[in-house]
Write a structure and sequence with these properties.
7 strands, 17% strand, binds magnesium ion
Length: 232
């Protein structure tokens, strides 16, 4: 791969659950260890009755006590999009900063990333650790919350993306809504794609990271102009 200079400063942001990971690890984890009882707070969060911090706290309360081994065995079943490694390599070759933004938990994100050889990625997520069979949380970014998120992605886009740079955001779900209002280019699938369509927000659809890698490479090489880049 040639190591050409970026034509314009581009900063990449991506969600983790259901975007980089195949399946929503956080949601499935609570569901599994609560025998489905976590669906109650999740539904309240989907209906905007509680914020995501309260949702995570209540989901954890529905879980039975678990061991570290059980937890790790569960996490290790999940896979990373096989095309993600080419995306990371592309970002490195063009020296594009890449930030992972998650309103989920560092506990499974870091484990899955490390196990799949992605040790050096920058992740902003809520923190959790297992203590005496229970999940113990800390909320490093809650002070910057919008009132709906525990770790609001809007705040990270605002602080990590200078005005003269182009932000590219990749996501799939409800926790990405705060990010897409800030992003110059949006890649969306599933819930987020439907939301963008309904609200007439311009986005690029994707099934996996290979489409995204190709499009970002075309943007960097000047083969594609920034979609929607002039509407902000
Ligand atoms: Mg997601
Ligand atoms: Zn938010």
């Amino acid at each position: 791969m040639t190591n050409s200079k970026p034509v314009k400063k581009i900063i990449l942001f991506s969600d983790f659950d259901g975007t980089i990971s195949i399946g929503d690890v956080g949601n499935r984890l609570f569901d599994y260890f609560s025998d489905g009882r976590s669906a109650v707070p999740v539904e309240r969060w989907r209906s905007d009755l509680i914020d995501s911090r309260q949702c995570l706290i209540e989901e954890a309360e529905t879980m039975r006590d678990i061991t570290e081994a059980e937890l790790n065995r569960f996490i290790d079943q999940f896979e990373i999009d096989p095309a993600f490694s080419d995306f990371v390599a592309m970002a490195e070759s063009y020296q594009l900063p890449l930030y992972l933004l998650s309103d989920g938990l560092d506990l499974y994100i870091n484990r899955l990333l490390n196990q799949n050889g992605f040790d050096n990625l920058t992740v902003f997520a809520n923190r959790a650790k297992l203590s005496n069979g229970r999940l113990e949380f800390s909320w490093p970014y809650f002070k910057n919350s919008c009132g709906r998120c525990a770790n609001c992605k809007k705040y990270h886009l605002q602080t990590l993306c200078p005005d003269d740079a182009v932000s590219i955001y990749i996501g799939d779900g409800k926790s990405d809504l705060c990010a897409i209002g800030e992003a110059d280019v949006i890649f969306a699938c599933d819930y987020l794609a439907d939301y963008c369509k309904e609200n007439k927000i311009e986005f690029l659809p994707f099934d996996n990271f290979s489409t995204i890698t190709d499009t970002v490479r075309d943007i960097v090489s000047g083969l594609t102009t920034i979609p929607g880049g002039d509407k902000r």
